[in-house]
Write a structure and sequence with these properties.
about 450 residues, 3-stranded antiparallel β-sheet, globular
Length: about 450
């Protein structure tokens, strides 16, 4: 017989708010302490029943059953920003779109974008000067936005359009964080200043995206190699239908959020960790110098840079692209041996699982060398999930991993980045895990690119 969640050990709540106050004040710290109570920990978020999962088998059960466990209210509020894109759609709508979009992310297609990634990174590095101080998070945000816009639209988007999209995504991140602290109980249509800014930013983003879609429809030349062209030409194999402009807008907005914000954050955290661990940075630089010998990296080099790949994996363990996400029970069900009533919010935290001492020795230490093939094979599914898992695993996982390695290899053989003394870095778990006030670094040039013809 299944057990009632209320019988399980749980952190004490606070009156009507329950655990909402503690979760809002320090979500990463609070959820980490929940791990001490067991593998499934009941919480009360105001009037909402919730639980935190720390058993990887339970996590996999939730992630594999997309119809029973749907996106939580926190994700559903993103429909204003992302509409019915892959991140927010449910049921048959999600399945149909996933089927349409899947061919775009076949490895043979995303390999074509590697040259763009390296070329744009090289352009950025040519503007960096020895001894300068930068907010490297801001630099990575600008870089990955340019890359994803080029990959989607096959165009160097003008500054007005790029600014509108970047501003909307930034405003959305801050808006989402403020609503998360309130358990998403404040109506987004209520004319509070942050809601007004949010909707104004989305309106500007919509104008930019719809303008780009309209411009593409008027073009007669075939640009079938960019993501927008592939979305526009994709047909449902059952109905033969294609995406209308609204659905194209939703998918483009989703691709820009996922392909821009997450990689920028991953690179920012990685460069921070390398600054804090000069021994790791030295070993990384040695591998890049040995394999690349000063030239720019390419897709062909990815398999020759094992330590660079390990650095990215370990960085994403400590600072995952998404630190917390939720699902909601669409009907009465069970997880393991426990009853889960309809409407229960299930919280899963990559931050908590990726630092679990049961699965990672010295879990808070930055140790890229831990990522051996043998280690990965023995790690249970549901423990290391930087891109999620199950049928809704991130469709752009291969794109993001390739981009992270190529960008890091391009940057790290040319510059060392050292953190500014006494600059406080605060992880902010919004839609993604981003540094709340950026990451200030000083630049130290260590090499120049060598053209292939000069070798």
């Amino acid at each position: 017989m299944a057990q009632d969640l209320s019988t399980l050990p749980a952190p004490a709540g606070d009156g009507i708010a329950g655990n909402l106050t503690d979760l809002g004040r320090d979500p990463l710290g609070f959820l980490t302490t929940c791990r001490d109570y067991g593998e499934i920990v009941p919480l009360r978020l105001g009037l909402t029943s919730s639980c935190v999962l720390t058993n990887p088998d339970y996590i996999e059960q939730v992630l594999k059953n997309r119809d029973t466990f749907i996106k939580s209210r926190g994700f559903r509020v993103l429909k204003t920003l992302l509409g019915e894109g892959l991140l927010t759609a449910e049921g048959e709508s999600w399945f149909s779109q996933r089927r349409l979009a899947q061919p775009m992310f076949h490895q043979s297609r995303i390999d074509n974008y590697g040259k763009i990634m390296v070329e744009y990174t090289d352009r950025m590095l040519q503007t960096w000067q020895d001894g300068e101080t930068h907010d490297v998070h801001a630099d990575m945000m600008r870089l990955t936005l340019k890359i994803v816009m080029k990959c989607i639209f096959d165009a160097n988007v003008d500054t007005g359009e790029a600014h509108a999209i970047a501003e909307a995504l930034d405003v959305a991140m801050n808006w989402f964080e403020s609503k998360r602290r309130q358990n998403f109980l404040v109506w987004e249509w209520f004319p509070r200043p942050e809601n007004v800014r949010y909707h104004q930013a989305i309106a500007k983003m919509d104008a930019a995206i719809y303008g780009l879609i309209a411009s593409r429809r008027q073009q007669t030349d075939d640009r079938g190699h960019d993501l927008l062209s592939m979305l526009m030409s994709a047909r449902d194999e059952d109905t033969g239908q294609q995406m209308n402009d609204k659905l194209l807008r939703d998918e483009v907005a989703t691709l820009m959020l996922a392909g821009h914000e997450t990689t920028a954050n991953a690179l920012s955290w990685t460069l921070m960790l390398l600054s804090q661990h000069p021994d790791v940075r030295q070993k990384l630089t040695a591998e890049l110098q040995q394999i690349l010998q000063g030239r720019l990296p390419s897709i062909a080099d990815l398999g020759k840079l094992p330590y660079t790949n390990q650095v990215i994996k370990e960085s994403m363990r400590l600072y995952p692209p998404v630190a917390i996400f939720g699902r909601e029970a669409a009907k009465d069900t069970t997880i393991g041996d426990y009853d889960i009533p309809q409407g229960t919010v299930i919280t899963i935290s990559q931050w908590v699982m990726h630092r679990h001492p049961k699965y990672f020795s010295d879990p808070d230490a930055f140790q890229p060398k831990r990522w051996t093939e043998a280690f990965e094979k023995q790690l249970p599914r549901g423990v290391y999930i930087p891109f999620g898992d199950g049928p809704r695993v991130c469709i752009g996982k291969g794109f993001a991993q390739m981009e992270a390695v190529l960008l890091l290899a391009t940057i790290a053989q040319r510059f060392e980045l050292d953190l500014e003394p006494n600059f406080e870095i605060v992880p902010q778990p919004s839609i993604t895990l981003r540094p709340a006030t950026g990451i200030r670094v000083s630049l130290k040039r260590i090499g120049e690119p060598v053209a292939i013809g000069d070798r």
